[in-house]
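worker-3 :: picked Acrylyl-CoA reductase (NADPH)
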Amino acid sequence: MATFKAIRIDKADKGTTAALTQFDEAELMDGDVSVRVEWSTLNYKDGLALTGKAPVVRRFPMIAGIDFAGTVEQSSHPQWKAGDKVVCTGWGMGETHLGAYAEKARVKGDWLVALPQGLSARDAMAIGTAGFTAMLSVLALEKHGLSPKSGPVVVTGAAGGVGSVAIAVLSKLGYHVIASTGRASEADYLKQLGAAEIIDRNELSAPAKPIARERWAGGVDSVGSTTLANLLSMTKYGGAIAACGLAAGLDLPSSVAPFILRGVCLLGIDSVMCPIEPRKAAWQRLASDLDRTKLTEITHEIPLDEVPEWGAKILAGQVRGRIVVKIV
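worker-3 :: tokens ->
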């Protein structure tokens, strides 16, 4: 194909524009693997890029989308051949490298992970960066030494993509999960995913005390700012919080008290430049530890042309769980 459909972001007089258009194949960036993209997904970062609410996009024009699953069409990379089913998340796609909301992508073969056995391409994108980040967080907590016997774990932004997958995985592993959300109407949804308790996010939104009553052994936080500060102040001795998001802001108005008085650890989670071996491990664990029935329950499908509209919705907190984008 000389041209293909893509969601293209361009600079405008005021900010940026995002629209479905035809993209010239000759404009694809360098890479040793070309992929026919079949499915993508919508993450919070995609919403920021599509709306221009944050300087996510670093070059123009840009094809939006940070995740895809599809089939290799051409490859000069020794690991991949035509017909291979692959997944790609992060690595600057949709930011510095032309991204996933398109019928075709050209990327470095070193960025790709084989589609795990038992997962369809659609399943992989129902998981996407949000679910992948949730699993990296779980793996980090396990490496720290956390287990269900350690005590309850808290998940913030519980009805969002990261939160939904984190709850589903942690509950299946046997943890007592406390879900924090600002949407009381999602209580039944969160309990179906496996949350044992639900708390209002307002409990974590007031200025944090240096140290507060111990409430949980660990947690997964996609919110940041004051919420993360409160989580840390309420973490049990020797516990840990995996920080993987900034929905409430980049700041961290905390103190050293949780770290030096309770030995609490703050575990930083990056999904964009995560090395390939931890990527493979996370995807294998997702294939085994994420209940496929629950994945279906948290997933909503949209066509490619609705991506800009849903990008605004995810920033407005109007998206529950995961959004998959059907490309072809």
